[in-house]
Design a protein that fits this description.
The protein is an alpha/beta fold and 344 residues long. It is built from ten helices and 18 strands.
């Protein structure tokens, strides 16, 4: 199969390219400084270009059978003034790619989406059943919106309501909607892979755009304790980048009816707290114990733990790297150079 991989020099994209090595690959990356640092180096096999360049995309899509779209500006969004850059890279970029795919007759897309589309995860009230939680007030756990009772967090399925809490999250929802509209209009197919908290080798370090695992690793490399927000008990699903890459390979081969966009959680199915992550990393490198500092960022959610059942049923995907083994490897794995925090 001939496959265009966008964002192919990035953290996830480079692992996806490795997982697809048996195919004929066309690799594209804009080398954004948030992901690649100021130097922006990449393999000579990677075409340096922007997914908003329609003419370039049409030339690269000639003879392509499928697209694996990893290119995105990632992270919470440091400030509302970042919104135009996020919308331009993620949504205009995706719309331009979809238009180029239509022009060249490419009908198969695997889209890198994210768990951030959900906002808060799935919660159950003892009296009212499954509810959307109320806003967090005193304490960190959201209450039942109907009776203020404490809620029990559970596994969030793909049919949960979408409630983005950050600029980045809003652009990921928009990417899914654009791709779904394209599929219906063209008879194409889309697998929207909702990555949960991805970690592993080649994460960018020393940057607020990176995931929490990289932020903790960067602190430990400086000899500093990881700074854990809230009380450290917020639950997440940490999934190894090698498993994420394998999910992409499976999705590229999995059939879908024409016109369908199917979303699946790409997760480990093994929930852990942010505090556990910090403690496990600290122990693995013999570093200082984490410091729980309280507070929270405006876009943060309390618990998002994924239901892995649909990915197992539809893609045959089950994560292979457990938390203990994955974090032990990640503790000493190579990271990328410090990334720039200014958008391009």
């Amino acid at each position: 199969m001939r496959i265009l991989v966008t964002g192919a020099a990035g953290f996830v994209g480079s692992h996806v390219a490795d997982a697809l090595a048996g195919h004929h690959l066309v690799l594209l990356d804009a080398l954004l400084p948030q992901a690649h640092g100021a130097s922006g180096a990449a393999s000579p096999a990677v075409v340096v270009g922007d997914v908003r360049d329609g003419a370039l995309l049409r030339s690269l899509l000639d003879g392509v059978d499928a697209v694996c779209h990893q290119a995105a500006m990632v992270g919470h969004g440091l400030d509302p003034s970042d919104a135009p850059a996020y919308a331009a890279h993620n949504d205009v970029g995706t719309a331009t790619l979809l238009a180029a795919m239509h022009a060249t007759g490419v009908r198969r897309l695997v889209l890198a989406s994210s768990m951030v589309v959900y906002g808060e995860g799935r919660y159950r009230c003892p009296s009212h059943g499954v509810v959307r939680p109320g806003p967090r007030r005193s304490g960190y756990d959201p209450p039942c919106p109907a009776c203020d009772a404490p809620l029990e967090p559970g596994l969030v399925p793909e049919d949960a309501p979408l409630e983005p809490r950050s600029t980045y999250a809003a652009t990921k929802v928009a990417q899914e909607h654009l791709a779904a509209a394209w599929a219906r209009q063209t008879g194409g197919t889309v697998w929207a892979l909702r990555y949960h908290n991805v970690y592993g080798p080649r994460m960018p370090r020393d940057t607020p755009y990176a995931g929490v695992a990289s932020i903790f690793r960067s602190a430990l490399e400086r000899g500093e304790p990881p700074m854990v927000l809230e009380d450290g008990r917020q639950r997440r699903d940490f999934v190894h980048v090698g498993d994420v890459a394998r999910a992409n390979a499976l999705a590229l081969e999995a059939p879908l009816p024409a016109g369908y966009c199917e979303a699946v959680n790409v997760c480990s199915g093994e929930p852990h707290t942010v505090g556990e992550l910090a403690e496990t990393l600290s122990r693995a490198v013999g570093g200082p114990a984490p410091t729980v500092v309280g507070g929270m960022r405006a876009a943060d959610v309390r618990h998002v733990v994924a239901d892995p059942a649909r990915a197992a049923a539809l893609l045959g995907f089950r994560a292979r790297t457990g938390f203990a083994d994955g974090i032990a490897e990640f503790a000493t794995a190579p990271l990328r150079e410090p990334a720039a925090v200014t958008s391009s």
